Amino acid sequence: MHRILVTGGAGFIGSNFVHHVVAHTDLHVTVLDKLTYAASREALAGLPQDRVELVVADVADAAPVDECVARTDAVVHFAAESHNDNSLDDPSPFIRTNLIGTFTLLEAVRRHGKRLHHVSTDEVYGDLALDDPQRFTEETAYHPSSPYSASKAGSDHLVRAWVRSFGVAATISNCSNNYGPWQHIEKFIPRQITNVLDGIRPRVYGDGLNVRDWIHADDHSSAVLAILERGRPGETYLVGADGERNNLDVVRSILTQMGQPADAWDRVADRAGHDRRYAIAPDKLRAELGWAPRFHDFEQGLADTIDWYRNHEAWWRPHKDATEASYAARGQ
Ligand code: NAD
Ligand code: DAU
Fold it and tell me: What does pTM read for this prediction?
């Protein structure tokens, strides 16, 4: 394997993955990205031009996808519409990118006989009760709640069908909630950090007791690279770092670390269909591929992330007013 194609490589996790690959391998990377509102050219700036190229294209557009797949050895598929709240406002781009886009890519890797790794989410499993002793495993039944998670579940099913019916050499990973640099400020952690920087009180949906299983984006990247290099085609691997926390605890940590009273947040309208709890059992990934996360201390990872947003105001500032205006229109 000398060349990889990374779809969605200008987004939050995709760009993190490209940096990880450049730092830890000799691979050449072609990024295929439509550069939607969620993308960032700056996230790829400074990478060696002889190692990384950007092709601006839609993953649902067969011609550029075919051309890029033809000249690569393997594909890592991050490109997606990724925000649950947006999928409640307008599901249509989620259906096009997450389903038609994955279908388009699958047809290209089938034609050219290329290896594929499909990046998916733990949300395909629905949610767990707060007191459920179980965590998600590779055997958990699919039960998605939102248009976003249903579109990702559908994309996983497409990948499995192309493995079984056409012999495509594909793996799938389902990861929990990521945090770290370059995450769009529509998402929970960067929204609250940039709110506090702007003197706005953090906004918590519903009772704030919903649990997410946080993992640093760099640990997700190392897991995806391990699966690409050593995973067994046809297999699914769950990715998580034992990071369960409820939203109130995360907001209180952000406030305290930023020198504000821990109770200086506001409750806002709940998300429709809001999943209660996600929790990943990453045993297969650890046992089979020897993967382990590097970021063990969530408070330290959060502190680094707060510093990063403090130091990158020029990057997020142009998006802040529009992001908050669309939340205000939803009562959030
Ligand atoms: P993101 O929204 O930050 O980035 C998505 C990227 O995909 C952007 O660069 C965007 O321009 C690109 N894109 C969107 N539509 C496209 C299209 N039609 N053609 C080509 N490119 C397109 O998303 P993210 O948070 O980095 O998530 C990346 C992937 O990881 C997604 O597949 C998501 O489902 C999955 N995932 C995310 C998380 C998380 O916590 N963020 C957790 C598990 C899995
Ligand atoms: O679990 C993996 C998923 O994690 C990924 O597949 C998605 O792409 C990613 O966006 C993320 O989905 P969530 O819906 O869990 O993430 P979000 O950042 O939108 O919200 C995290 C939690 O915080 C959730 O319980 C909703 C809540 N929330 C969110 C926002 C934006 C708030 O309480 N207030 C907010 O302002």
Answer: 0.99
* Alpha-carbon span 295 to 59, nearest angstrom: 32
| Any ligand 2 atom below 6 A from CB of 212 | yes
Could you tell me which residues are beta bridge partners of residue 173? 119, 237
Q: Whose C-alpha lies nearest to ligand 2, atom 4?
A: 177
Q: Ligand 1: residues within 6 Å at CB? A: 7-8, 10-14, 33-36, 38-39, 58-60, 78-82, 97, 101, 119, 121, 152, 175, 177-178, 184
Residue-number span of the structural domain to which 135 is assigned: 3-181+215-239
Measured CA distances, 67 to 60, 61, 246 (Å): 13, 11, 44
Helices and strands per DSSP (H, E), number in the chain = 12, 13
Q: Which atom of ligand 2 is nearest to the CA of 204?
A: 33
Per the domain annotation, does 248 fall within a domain? no
The stretches in the chain having pLDDT less than 50 are: none
State whether residue 328 is helix, strand or coil.
helix
Read off the CATH number of the domain in which 37 is found: 3.40.50.720
CA-based Rg of the chain, rounded to a whole angstrom?
Answer: 19
Residue type, 9: G
Catalytic residue among 33, 58, 81, 122: 122
- The closest residue, in CA terms, to atom 25 on ligand 2 is 210
The catalytic position among 123, 127, 213, 275 is: 123
Would you call 314 exposed, middle or buried from its count of C-beta atoms within 10 A (0-12, 13-18, 19+)? exposed
174 pairs with which residues across the strands?
Answer: 120, 238
Domain count, the chain: 1
Whether 210 is in a domain gets the answer: no
In a domain, 267, yes or no: no
pLDDT for the residue numbered 296: 87
Which helix or strand (DSSP H or E) is residue 236 part of? strand 236-239
Q: What is the pLDDT of residue 170?
A: 98
Within-domain flag for 262: no
